[in-house]
Amino acid sequence: MVLKYWGTTAAVNFTTTKLLVKQADGSCSAWVDLADDLLKVHNITGLTRQNIKTKDIPTNLVGLGFWVYPTNIGQGGVPTVYKFGNHRVFKFNSSNVVYDPSYGKRYSGENPWESASITNFVYDDNGSPMFHSNSPSQQTIFAPYVE
Amino acid sequence: MKNFKHLLVLLGFLVPLSVSLSSFASEELFKTLENGSTLLIEKTKLSGKPVHTYADDAFDAEGKLKPNAKRIPTGHVLDRIKYTLHIVDSKSKIKSIVWEKEHVEIVQWEDFKILNVEYVNSFCFVLWKDVNNAAIEVINLKDNKVIPKAVQRLSIANMPEVKGGQVIVDKNNINNAIVVFEVTTEFGKQTWKFDPSTLVWTKKSK
Prior knowledge:
- The complex is a heterodimer of chains A (147) and B (206).
- With 147 residues, chain A is an alpha+beta fold.
- Chain A has a domain at 45-144.
- Chain A has helices spanning 17-23, 28-41, 110-117; strands at 4-5, 25-26, 47-54, 61-68, 83-84, 87-92, 98-100, 105-107, 118-125, 128-133, 140-144.
- In chain A, the strands form three sheets. A five-stranded antiparallel β-sheet of chain A has the order 8-7-6-3-11, with helices on both faces. A four-stranded antiparallel β-sheet of chain A has the order 5-4-9-10.
- The longest helix of chain A is centred in the N-terminal third of the chain and has 14 residues, at 28-41.
- Chain B has one domain (24-204).
- Helices cover 10% and strands 50% of the residues of chain B.
- Chain B is built from one helix and 13 strands, in the order αβββββββββββββ.
- Chain B has one helix at 2-22, and strands at 27-32, 38-53, 72-88, 95-104, 113-120, 123-129, 134-140, 145-146, 152-154, 162-169, 179-185, 188-195, 200-204.
- The termini of chain B are far apart.
- The A-B interface holds A 12, 27, 51, 53, 57-65, 81, 83-86, 122, 124-125, 127-133, 135, 137, 143-146 and B 49-54, 56, 59, 62-65, 71, 74, 76, 78, 80, 102, 104-111, 130-133, 153, 157-161, 186.
C-alpha cells in the first residue's frame, strides 16, 4: 500500500505518524511527524519543524493562505487538495536548507521553496477574499513549532 | 372541520420546530460554560464570493498597499464557511445568535476553534484560533454585533499555536467590567486587559 499526501479530503484529520500509517494518507503535519520519528530512530538531530504561513501586508491585507501549484507531485501522487492555510516542513539548523517531506523535496532556502511551491497567495481584504500571484520577493513566514 | 383545524395548528407548530432543529444540524460544539450558559457553534457552507487582486504597482517600495489601490476582479470564486455562535442563557432559556464569522474555505480553516466565551454586562468576549491566528472579539449584546474597533488580533513571534485562554473578570469592580484575557501558548502566557470605556486592549507586561 502506498502512503499518500492528501490522497483524500479526510486527510485533514490525519496529522500524526500513527494515523498516516493506519490510513495510508495524511496531511503535511503527518508527513513531518513521520519524518521526525524516522530521524529519531536513527538519532539524527539538527532539524527543526517549521510552520509556513502567508505574511500580512500592511496595512489591511491579512494573510489567509496560499495555493500550491496543482500539478506538483506529492507523496503517493498528485494531491487532491492544493488550497492551504499553512504548510509544515523541516529546516536544517546549520543552514537555510528546507526539507519538505510531503513532496519529498529539498530546497536551498525559504524563498526557493516558495517559488517552486506557491502560485497564489490569499488574503482577507476588509472582508473580501483577495489573490496575489507569487512574485520574486518572499511572502511567507517560517516559524518553528512544537507538536 | 374541528380536527382539520387541530391539524393546521399542529402543523403550524411542527414546521417552525423542524426549521429550528435543522438549523443546528451542522453544529460542531455544544458545551456548558462556567456561568451555566450553553454554547453552540454552527458551521454552514456559504455560496461563493468573488475574488479580486491588485496590480503590482498598487504596492509601494516598502511593499505596503497604497491607499485607494484599485481592485481588479479575477473571475475566481471562493466558497466560504460561516460560523455562528449561539448562547443559550441558563436563566431565560432564550437562544441568542450573537456572532457570525465568515472564513474563506481553505483546508486548515477546519482547525477553527472557539477557545473561550464569556460575557460581562453588555459585552460578550470570544477568543478564537485557527492554525495560524488567534483573536479576541468583543460583541455588543445590545445589538449582537461585533465591535470592530475592539477586535484584538494576537500576533506572537515564533508562536503559531495558541493553546487556550480564559476571561478573568474583576468581580470586585464589575461595574467597570475590566476584563483580562490570558492566552496560554507553548512559549508562555500573554495577558490582555480590556477597557470598555475606550474599547482598547492593552498587553500587560510580565
